[in-house]
Amino acid sequence: MVSEFQRLRHLVRQRRKLRQVSQSTIALDAMGSDHGPEVLLEGAYLAVCQYPGLKVICTGPRSRLESILRHRGWHHPQLLVEDAPEVVGMHEAPSESLRKTRSSVAVAARLVQEGAANGMVSAGNTGATMATTLLMWRTLPGISRPAISAILPHPERPCVLLDVGANVDCKPRHLLHFAIMGYVYSRYVFGRRHPKVALLSIGEEETKGNELVFAARELIEQTDINFVGNAEGRDLVKGKFDVVVCDGFVGNIVLKFGEAVVEFILESIKREVQKSLVSQLGAVAMMPALRNFKRQVDYAEFGGAPLLGVRGNCIIAHGSSHAKAIKNAIRVAAEMAGAHVNDHIVELMRDNGLLKTPNDRGVKAAVLK
Amino acid sequence: MVSEFQRLRHLVRQRRKLRQVSQSTIALDAMGSDHGPEVLLEGAYLAVCQYPGLKVICTGPRSRLESILRHRGWHHPQLLVEDAPEVVGMHEAPSESLRKTRSSVAVAARLVQEGAANGMVSAGNTGATMATTLLMWRTLPGISRPAISAILPHPERPCVLLDVGANVDCKPRHLLHFAIMGYVYSRYVFGRRHPKVALLSIGEEETKGNELVFAARELIEQTDINFVGNAEGRDLVKGKFDVVVCDGFVGNIVLKFGEAVVEFILESIKREVQKSLVSQLGAVAMMPALRNFKRQVDYAEFGGAPLLGVRGNCIIAHGSSHAKAIKNAIRVAAEMAGAHVNDHIVELMRDNGLLKTPNDRGVKAAVLK
Are B307 and B146 in contact, with CB atoms under 8 Å apart? Predict the structure, then answer.
């Protein structure tokens, strides 16, 4: 039940978010995509058209990007190009990618570092994006491992799942940090008052879990975030929790599996439908309902996965993102910047006594595999 | 493309399986179910009616079971009752359950141990079933941890995923044993010639994984099973592999998540459809196609999860199984017994030098949590 008051609150939040987006400048790594730079530039163009005031700086080989923009007629005073002559391949090792200091991802990260942009978006090589931002921006004080967070779709209550692939072998304190980062993201970007945080495990009971879960639980229980216990695999789609914490190995497998299951089901139904004419007519009649459903679970609506724990705002978009997903990723990067997510993370870390020293400079972590 | 030869082979295999099922006696723990003993007895009755020659011994309080059978008119010369006055609750700790030596699950396991039955089926407390069989039957030579295997549905190529919850903190050698057990199950029960075995990880490349995956990979590569490398989360529904190995923590989360996603999607579509009359008419026309699809992914068709690695054939059925699922679980237990899965596991362990001593007696492992 949505009360009048809740609706009003929602409207106020939407307006504030819109204002924040309109005042932002986002750097877009315009070279990393399975579909080539064109869809990225289209996403950027859609974003600046939809949000007056928003500025997008696309990084990549200047002549190539400008020729696409000219050819497609995507002219907009807020859509700029910054030259980045080098390109990082999708399968290049992160350590290799770091040598290319003038790559599209490095130039985008530098724009953020220098304050010329509030955040960045990349749909390219995830390892390279992580390595670049980590090396250039470092981690937030007290945080030793950044985490990639996926937003699991739900009609009323999207769930932040982290980590989904940045860290495969985690220590309990990493899960503690993920819990804090997820809590802040859910609270300040999704506007949940007091987000429910859970640990992904094999049963709801306290006695269910592996060694990592037991140890992490003890640490998280000592903080003042709203930790509610274990979440099971089935809870991830039920809208019971706002934040679910796990190590990157489990999170990555769950995320990829979930995407594939959705695809598998829709394709199986399609195959069955094609076997009979009556079913086909039925499917046509059901189309609007199916489309509505698809919109609910479409990752493109959420625009990408925030990289949390680094000193900057970075959204990692799916390599196969289409223009709409890129537009949304740019919006989410601007919202993340406007919500001061990183400041709030540091504050919550400090309040819980998790900063090692008052002047913690963050860790320049080893480059990830 | 299915050739004439393949069709013939399939037919021969089906006939052989049917013969095996008809010669079996299966013990059914008739008390463990979310829906009460009635659905279990109905499943048993369906099984003996469908497979002439198959015998099912239902364990539980004699008077209660017999009164249900009498009341429902389920009389069959091959459907017997064995008295087991005690009952294990769904939330009872496994260690507690072991004290009840005359519980329905203990009596069923004893029937197998004494050779009065070839296998057993339980839809009750999984921990209690594992603890009972482990203590009474012990593990197979060389195997230190039994594994619960789930059968992931696929129209052409069902995938054996193990472990899905018996072992949360695994050592590399446990994953090696799971690989061997899964290989044997796929080969001798599903009739795959040379099953493709993979390790569940975060990427297909050899460099992707956590410490456990790297170490297990090294061990599995030394065996002569058909190990093909890493499987990603998305591969689980794509019919690329016959066996996928993981620790029970990951497997359990993936399995529960997958079940919930399927439910979530079908319910979301239903909700959307109900919003318009045209969609509703469309859904009616699509019904046969949707039903076909549901049959493909319905766990009830696969009947339950084989418990591998113990000296006996045990199928763990879903607590919420309906009669059809129980009937299929009984069939699968009989097929597993007829295929001599356990003998083949021991043989493969021996061929790969994995039996500690020629007369390895198996481990009476500590009772699981």
Answer: yes
The A residues from 220 to 279 touching B (CB cutoff 8 Å) are 232-238, 246-250, 252-262, 264-265, 268-269, 272-273, 275-276, 278-279
Backbone angles phi, psi at B95, to 5 degrees: -65, -35
Query: How big is chain A, counted in residues?
Result: 369
Contact status, residue B78 vs residue B45, Cβ threshold 8 Å: no
pTM (predicted TM-score): 0.88
Residues A253-293: tens digit of each pLDDT: 999 898 888 888 878 777 777 777 777 777 777 777 777 66
Question: Whole-angstrom Cα distance, residue A200 to residue A213?
Answer: 8
Taking the CA atoms of A334, A336, A340 and A346 in sequence, report the sign of the dihedral they define.
negative
Nearest CA in chain B to A281: B282
Among B170, B245, B264, B271, pick the best mutation site for testing chain A contact (most A Cβ within 10 A): B264
Six token digits for residue A311: 């000193």
pLDDT digits (tens, 9 = 90+) for A11-62: 888 888 888 888 899 999 999 888 889 999 999 999 999 999 999 999 999 9
- Residue B247, both tokens: 């620790």
ipTM of this predicted structure? 0.86
What tokens does A293 get?
Answer: 């459903």
| CA gap B243, A155 in Å, rounded | 35
* A37, A44, A68, A70, A76 from A73: Cα distances, Å: 15, 13, 8, 5, 9
Please list the residues that pair with B79 across neighbouring strands.
B56
Return all residues near B7 (Cβ < 8 A) that are at least 6 apart.
Answer: none
Q: Mind listing the domains of chain A with CATH numbers?
A: 1-146+309-369 (3.40.50.10950), 154-303 (3.40.718.10)
- How many Å is the Cα radius of gyration of chain B? 21
